[in-house]
Amino acid sequence: MPEVVLTGAAGRIEGRYSPGKRENAPIALILHPHPRAGGHMNHPVAVQMYHLFMKRGFSTLRFNFRGVGRSQGEFDGGIGELADAATALDWLQSTNPTASQCWVAGYSFGAWVSMQLLMRRPETDGFISVSPPANMYDFSFLAPCPASGLFLHGSNDTVTPPVEVERVVTKLRSQKGIVIDYDLIEGATHFWAENLPDVEKHVGQYLDKRLEAEPA
């Protein structure tokens, strides 16, 4: 998977990119967890999602937020990181101008940033939000949410208790025109250390369901 270097507002953005095999391959952007908590694009959950999209023919990009790895700049509390994500999606779209679908996926802090990006990009067709930190960040901007997607959470998540995510899911499910799936994985924590196979299974099944209904 080739390394790519993008130019963002804070300088260089380091990424890994896997192009799809057909001209109109769908695209997917993967966002990693909190930089201040050791998050980076090679985190196992981020890599897992990267491979799940890649195996299904997506042109897939994951990258390091500013100040992480070889990406330049400093942590910016989410504002700059959203700008980095927008830059990455711009690059992905310009590299794949005939893409049949556009997806965003994020884990923890990356889930929060990805949902903000989703709100700014109504052309997005779907999302995957793993362990969204709904008790730490305000998710009320999802009004209305422009796309259907999956929330995946662990029943033993002590960082963000499931009830916090369920509030967001309940609110979004009251909207018409979108479908929100919510999978609560018994025994999984916020970090998924023992439950990576569950991420693979549930995200993979969701993608397969959506792609069967709406071929990319």
Describe the structure.
Strands 1-2-4-3-5-6-7-8 form an eight-stranded mixed beta sheet, with helices on both faces. The model has no long low-confidence stretch (mean pLDDT 97). The protein is 33% helix and 22% strand. The protein has 216 residues and is of the alpha/beta class. The protein has helices at 44-55, 79-95, 109-120, 162-173, 196-213; strands at 3-8, 11-18, 27-31, 59-63, 102-107, 126-130, 148-154, 180-185. The protein has five helices and eight strands, in the order E-E-E-H-E-H-E-H-E-E-H-E-H.
Mean pLDDT: 97
- Poorly predicted regions are none
**What's the total number of strands?**
8
- From the N-terminal CA to the C-terminal CA, the straight-line distance is 22 Å
Structural class: alpha/beta
The major sheet is characterized as: 8 strands, mixed
Helix-strand topology string: EEEHEHEHEEHEH
- Specify the number of helices: 5
Q: Assign a percent range to the helix content.
A: 25-40%
Computed CA radius of gyration, to the nearest angstrom: 16 Å
Overall spatial form: globular
Strand content: 15-25%
Strands across the major sheet, in which order? 1-2-4-3-5-6-7-8
Q: Care to give the gist of this entry?
A:
By secondary structure, this protein is α/β, with parallel strands linked by helices.
Relevant terms:
alpha/beta; globular; eight-stranded mixed beta sheet; 8 strands; 33% helix; 216 residues
Secondary structure elements and their pairing?
Layout: E1 3-8, E2 11-18, E3 27-31, H1 44-55, E4 59-63, H2 79-95, E5 102-107, H3 109-120, E6 126-130, E7 148-154, H4 162-173, E8 180-185, H5 196-213
Parallel strand pairs: 3-4, 3-5, 5-6, 6-7, 7-8
Antiparallel strand pairs: 1-2, 2-4
